[in-house]
Write a structure and sequence with these properties.
Two copies of one chain form a homodimer. By secondary structure, chain A is of the alpha/beta class. Chain A has three domains: 19-67, lambda repressor-like DNA-binding domains (434 Repressor (Amino-terminal Domain), Orthogonal Bundle), CATH 1.10.260; 78-178 and 309-336, 3-Layer(aba) Sandwich (Rossmann fold); 180-307 and 340-345, Response regulator (Rossmann fold), CATH 3.40.50. Chain A has helices at residues 6-12, 24-31, 35-43, 50-63, 69-76, 92-107, 122-134, 147-154, 180-193, 209-224, 239-253, 263-275, 309-324, and strands spanning 81-87, 111-117, 139-143, 162-165, 175-178, 200-203, 232-234, 257-260, 285-287, 304-306, 332-335, 338-340. The first copy, chain A, binds a DNA duplex through residues 23-25, 33-37, 39-40, 43, 45-49, 52, 67-77.
DNA sequence: GTGCACAGTGTTAGCGATAACAGGCATCTG
DNA sequence: CAGATGCCTGTTATCGCTAACACTGTGCAC
């Protein structure tokens, strides 16, 4: 089609902000039909003669009509919107999960409203949920892998479907998560299989359920091999805390094998080791957790446990949808992680 | 107050999903007033006798009333919701910006609806904007630092306020961004000041405006020193592409100074160098961009250019708000980045 | 004591959409 | 050819809220 210059531009994009959006009725008038007919054309409900349909569609284009979602929500009771309670962080895991959810939702035509919490406290999580309920969301996904989240969810109202991502097994709501304990067991076994007498552990924050599950998987594996678990060093997921943990470990007696609860801390620890002249894999074997994109390029490339966060997000969305449809399907999805072996546990 | 056990619990959290949410009218009936009085109590508009107010508040609690935002939006024309077009990625920058925005918005009582795009194409960005408009957002923030975003924004409707984050200076909308060129100039000057005869550059994807601005800052600095710019090696922000760039550089003649367009690629490059026995800072000086939390723990710790993404998010939100209030304040905010010097450009 | 201001409340009319039902006019069926 | 059965369209009520205005009563100025 040839460009019709000024007319089109001028009509479609009036610079003033005051122009009212066209409504169904406006379109109906212009097309010479009733507003219901327009509604039927827009939504594809009910039969409309092709000729009429064309007239309506022309009017829609002419007025640049856009359905008002608030009105639709009010009339139907359905908002086609989901709420997500997300962590206010750029941690790789939570951020990836968020995108997994957003993706799945968008494909299904659902909008996503986010409410983030800076600190994993019971109150703030309850607040976030409450806030979302006010936004008339149809369901809520909570990405909040801490203890506090589990507690907050206990007192969550039951009248809006809710799915937790990565929360406690004991949480009173449906849950989708990666099997952290299994991942930790794989990591620990891998290190033991390399001939180490014991495996040390740098854990995440104690109030993170995932940190605790990894710790558990580690300690129960040692136990199964009749090995007494050494002291746990705790970090906060950050590279800096991993660095400090590394120095602590060096002082505590130079481990030969360390399972670190996430890749970023492993990076910090490797750095602390390197500064002390302790090289991996020559002097120490290290396994991380998460498989962040960088971990293959650490020095040395890091053996780690891969979690498929996108899949977690997808399954969480699916589970929520099935709840919305009132299908009482499963209440807990566990996703199995995968051990990725790289140089940090390679030949010395 | 003592807990009244079963009555309360039973009424407030009926497990069935079918129970209708209480409406203003329900509350009004229970409190023995008109629905308008309830509305006034809820919103604090208009005078209400303390006694009446108390009765209404009791009824609100009793019924666990929650205002219906769709109805409110329909009646007032204000949705108190902003739309954000975000990149479907876990890149540190975009993710951080998103959280900066969310934070600022939440404090101001605005909800955030996200629409993410997987690939920075003009069409997908237009679609995302269109999608948000349908959600009745009051304003839109576009985090999309690519060429395509700039193009898409040109054809964006003018009737919903829109602010771009990190887009082209030439974009036809208000923009908030970090001064990439300035950052690149600082990085390049820093390397030149260390006595290098030239500085190589590993650039980001050509369709990212930020990549181009950094490249420009680099090349114009060389030019100002009468140095001919060496060949540009291009990556895609990923550590893997940085690794490949590193190998390319090694083959192309072993540079002594490299400015890499982001930290992750710098990591990959350092890895490629290390594998070839080229150590930083002994044999080569490297500067990155972004200052991701990990960069202080790379081997060696990376000199880089810090961008305050949270501040970017905050200012973008502010700018959008001022647009909403129809204050014609500034149209472009530039935030100055900061050079962080670490070992990767340290003494040899 | 009349009038006026104002606190406190109620009534009515939308906002823009869908739901539910009610036709008019063909076309088929018997 | 009457009646039934669709297609296509229109009318009306309704979702839950706020805006706008109307109404009562009290307290105070004059």
């Amino acid at each position: 089609m040839a460009r019709t210059s000024s007319t089109e531009g001028g009509r479609k994009a009036p610079s003033a902000q005051g122009v009212r959006q066209a409504s169904l009725t406006d379109v109906a008038e212009l097309a010479g039909v009733s507003h219901m007919t327009v509604s039927r054309v827009i939504n594809g409900t009910g039969p409309v003669r092709p000729e009429t349909r064309a007239r309506v569609e022309a009017a829609v284009r002419e007025l640049d009509y856009r359905p008002n979602s608030a009105a639709r929500t009010l009339a139907t009771g359905k908002s086609e919107t989901l709420g997500v309670v997300a962590l206010d962080s750029t941690l790789y895991g939570p951020a990836s999960t968020l995108y997994g959810i957003e993706h799945a939702a968008r494909e299904a035509g659902y909008a996503i409203t986010i409410s983030s919490v800076s600190r994993p406290q019971r109150q703030s999580i309850s607040d976030a949920v409450e806030y979302l309920r006010r936004q008339a969301v149809e369901g809520i996904l909570v990405i909040a892998p801490h203890e506090a989240a589990g507690q907050a969810l206990e007192f969550t109202p039951r009248d809006v479907p809710l799915v937790a991502v990565g929360a406690a097994e004991s949480a009173p709501v449906p849950v989708v998560s990666v099997d952290q304990r299994d991942g930790a067991r794989r990591a620990t076994k891998h290190l033991l299989a390399l001939g180490h007498r014991t495996v040390w552990h740098v854990a995440g924050p104690a109030d993170w359920l995932e940190a605790r599950a990894r710790e558990q998987g580690w300690s129960e594996t040692l136990e199964a091999h009749d090995i007494e678990a050494p002291m746990v060093v705790r970090g906060d997921w950050s590279p800096r805390s991993g660095y400090e943990a590394g120095r602590t470990l060096l002082a505590a007696g130079r481990p030969t094998a360390v399972f670190v609860a996430n890749d970023q801390m492993a990076l910090g620890m490797l750095r602390a080791f390197a500064e002390a002249g302790v090289a991996a894999p020559r002097d120490v074997h290290v396994v991380g957790f998460d498989d962040v994109p960088e971990s293959a390029y650490y020095s040395p490339p890091l053996t780690t446990v891969r979690q498929d966060f996108i899949e977690v997000g997808r399954q969480a969305f699916e589970l929520l949808m099935s709840r919305l449809r009132n299908e009482g399907t499963g209440t807990r999805h566990l996703i199995t992680p995968e051990l990725i072996v790289r140089e940090s546990t390679g030949p010395r």
